[in-house]
Specification:
The structure is a single chain. It contains 7 helices and no strands. α1 packs parallel to α3, α3 crosses α5 and α5 runs antiparallel to α6. With 132 residues, the protein is mostly helical. It is globular. The protein has one domain: Orthogonal Bundle (N-utilizing Substance Protein B Homolog, Chain A).
């Protein structure tokens, strides 16, 4: 059985894949969940991936607003996937504390993109958090 942190990491990876195969994301998600026993976390993964994709334009708009001068297409794919996931949680999942969403996105960025992305992601999501 996996915990929420690992489930969030898998959701991040699926959202990263979305950037390269947007038309296949439902099939990718379904295949992933069929191949891996996610237990209770399967519902979370499905909700955040499908929810993020269905609200992608709105989420990207919020990120662009708080990225202060950074065009969304200039932000690394890793950072965007992590921030999209965190933004979805912050805006649509009241059961998840805002700080948890921000901290988990920072952890993912550290692991997959490096230390240099941390302050940027923290700044964008911190500003978003203040307006949730």
């Amino acid at each position: 059985m996996i915990n929420r942190r690992k489930a969030r990491e898998y959701a991040f990876i699926l959202l990263f894949e979305y950037r390269f195969q947007p038309e296949d994301i439902q099939e990718i998600l379904d295949d992933f969940l069929a191949e891996h026993d996610m237990g209770e976390q399967a519902n979370y993964i499905r909700e955040v991936v499908e929810g993020t994709v269905s609200h992608i334009e709105e989420i990207d708009g919020w990120i662009a607003t708080y990225a202060k001068g950074w065009a969304v297409d200039r932000i690394s794919v890793v950072c965007m996937a992590a921030m999209r996931l965190a933004t979805y949680e912050m805006k649509f999942m009241e059961s998840i504390p805002l700080n948890v969403s921000v901290n988990e996105a920072i952890t993912i960025c550290k692991q997959y993109d490096g230390e240099e992305s941390v302050s940027f992601v923290n700044g964008v999501l911190g500003n978003l958090k203040e307006n949730c």
